[in-house]
Task: inverse folding
């Protein structure tokens, strides 16, 4: 048969697809469980671990003896799943697929509840503030852990449009003098 020349049978291709779907789902659940912090900032060790994860995941998806055809099937499946997730994010139930921003600082006040929810310690927040060029807390209007894992630091000086804060659950804790009137 023609698929024997490709090095993969239809049944093996089905197993690659199912393995790719399983790994994608497991990765999705694990990242959601670990929280946005898992994506925030990576040390050298974190990067090495990600490379090792990629190797292990590739073996799981492709099977014992990887072939070009199995790789193409796995890659295509992952891209289809990625695209499907993007389409689902635009639906009414898309909120299940993305995290909400977490308020870490409101004005010059560090929010311990936000740090706890984000699984970030104060020293990591201070690092992000320094990266943003903050010299003291009085310069901060907001610090937010974004769904991407990045920390956004907004400086004082210009009023903040409340529309930019619409997915932040604790936005009522933001001092009114930092916000544009509705």
Result:
């Amino acid at each position: 048969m023609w698929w024997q020349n490709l090095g993969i049978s239809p049944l093996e291709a089905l197993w690659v697809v199912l393995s790719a779907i399983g790994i994608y789902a497991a990765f999705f659940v694990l990242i959601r469980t670990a929280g946005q912090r898992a994506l925030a900032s990576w040390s050298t060790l974190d990067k090495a671990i990600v490379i090792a994860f990629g190797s292990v995941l590739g073996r799981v998806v492709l099977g014992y003896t990887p072939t070009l055809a199995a790789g193409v099937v796995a890659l295509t499946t992952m891209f289809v799943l990625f695209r499907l997730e993007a389409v689902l994010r635009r639906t009414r139930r898309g909120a299940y697929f993305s995290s909400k921003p977490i308020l870490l600082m409101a004005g010059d006040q560090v929010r311990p509840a936000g740090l706890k929810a984000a699984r970030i310690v104060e020293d990591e927040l201070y690092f992000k503030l320094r990266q943003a060029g903050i010299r003291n807390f009085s310069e901060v209007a907001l610090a937010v852990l974004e769904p991407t894992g990045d920390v956004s630091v907004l400086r004082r000086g210009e009023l903040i449009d409340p529309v930019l804060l619409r997915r932040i659950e604790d936005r009522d804790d933001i001092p009114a003098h930092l916000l544009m009137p509705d």
Notes: The radius of gyration is 22 Å. Residues 2-97 form one domain. The chain is about 50% helix and 10% strand.
